[in-house]
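User: Sequence recovery, please. Input:
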């Protein structure tokens, strides 16, 4: 039973050491521990506040990034639209110039063809007149070889001539 029931001396000395330890801890250790705990609480609170601020700044940055991205997309779309309009305008101008050039070429070709045609017709007329004169000359030489035929032709021409 001695093991289960402690002696009065043991209780006294245990209580005395406990109270001294409690006094020493209360005087020196608890203020340092409480100060450290308060500092730790403050640093945790500060870190949480900083995290909240960082989170808010991140949200603002994301909103700004989204806004900048939307503006860039709008600007890109505008630039693409302007480029498309410029392309269509250039194509239309090129078509118009090509059409005008084609009309000029066709007009010049028609004028050249008409000039060649007129020259060919005049040349044909000249050749036909020369050929007609040559044929008439040959016919007259053959018919007028004898003198009786010449006299008959002259009489006939005089008779046909209108002297009035």
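Assistant: Recovered sequence (164 residues):
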């Amino acid at each position: 039973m001695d093991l289960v029931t402690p002696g009065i001396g043991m209780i006294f000395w245990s209580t005395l050491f406990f109270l001294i330890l409690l006094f020493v801890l209360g005087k020196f250790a608890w203020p340092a521990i409480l100060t450290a705990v308060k500092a730790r609480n403050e640093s945790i609170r500060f870190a949480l506040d900083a995290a909240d601020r960082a989170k808010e700044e991140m949200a603002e940055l994301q909103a700004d990034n989204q806004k900048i991205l939307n503006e860039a997309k709008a600007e890109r779309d505008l630039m693409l639209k302007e480029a498309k309009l410029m392309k269509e305008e250039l194509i239309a101008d090129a078509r118009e110039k090509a059409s005008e050039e084609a009309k000029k070429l066709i007009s010049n070709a028609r004028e050249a063809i008409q000039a060649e045609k007129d020259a060919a017709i005049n040349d044909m007329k000249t050749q036909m007149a020369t050929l007609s004169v040559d044929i008439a000359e040959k016919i007259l030489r053959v018919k007028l070889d004898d003198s009786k035929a010449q006299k008959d032709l002259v009489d006939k021409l005089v008779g046909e001539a209108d002297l009035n």
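The chain is about 90% helix and 0% strand.
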